[in-house]
Amino acid sequence: MEESSESVEVAVGDRTLRLSNLNKILYPAVGFTKAQVIDYYARIAPIMLPHVTGRCITMRRWPNGVDEPSFFEKRCPGHRPDWLPVGVGPGDSRGGIDYCRLEEPAALVWTANLAALELHSPMARCGDIESPTILVFDLDPGAPAAMAECCRVALVIRDILSAVGLDAYAKTSGSKGLQLYIPLNRPHTHGHAADFAHAVGRLAAKQEPGLVVVEMNKSLRSGKVFVDWSQNSRHKTTIAPYSLRAKAHPTVSTPVRWDEVEGGGDGPPLQFEAADVLDRVEHLGDLFAPVADQEQDLPTP
Prior knowledge:
This protein has helices at about 35-50, 105-115, 145-165, 190-205, 260, 275-285, 290-295, and strands spanning about 5-10, 15-20, 25, 30-35, 60, 70-75, 85-90, 95-100, 120, 135-140, 170, 180-185, 210-215, 225-230, 235-240, 255. By secondary structure, it is of the alpha+beta class. It has two domains: about 5-120, DNA primase, PRIM domain (Alpha-Beta Complex), CATH 3.90.920; about 135-295, Alpha-Beta Plaits. The strands form five sheets. It has a six-stranded mixed beta sheet with strand order 13-14-10-12-11-16. Strands 6-5-9-15 form a four-stranded antiparallel beta sheet, with no helix packed on it. The protein is globular, with a radius of gyration of 19 Å. The protein starts with 6 loop residues before the first strand and ends in an 8-residue tail after the last helix. Mean pLDDT is about 95; it is low at about 1-5.
């Protein structure tokens, strides 16, 4: 390994990467450095990669830390390594663009070195961006509602899905909310997924009118949980499983067990930081493993 005052050269598998500014503090409230960000992504890579491989990844970068401005980067940078593949994704109003594909540990280390703290992934894979392999319910609490209310809504949605023979898997957003994923067979369409998620959200709102809202009007969300079904749109992404979040602390979008959701209003908050997640996967494995390969069919519209 060669080291200088500015950068260090490291081997990640068969790749050699030059990492820079390792002592830069990216989470000032807790002194969490860029080196620690890179270490987290290097160690979580075997668990995280099945959930991002084959998908067009949008990076959100904080080059000067979470207290400073950030920017989204959809188009994979031209300075990427020649071994890092790209995939054509939805892009923007001008058409498709080449996104980064993160398919090996070195790719996660490379993005971490860019201070891409957050990695966002779409519901469909590269090569067939019209066919989602995941359906998501994004549960967003409006204050004073919080995680406890999200857990209550998640259980309502789980029971609705169970009644039609569908399994769902929960993860924290790493922020204030909770997300439920349904792994899908193909072919499904984004429209079918969004319509189904909207219908389930409306049924949950009918069952819990004082707790659930599905309308986009933000003025209706105070004290309730917004079931965001629109995240299933073709051009939308959701925070990837095991991605860091750019909060005051290095929280992570963390898969959780249903018994943790059931106790979500009574036990410790469902919020996990990088060290917690590394410990969890060591003892629990990948709670989200079925999302990567389970195939389920949505009811016909």
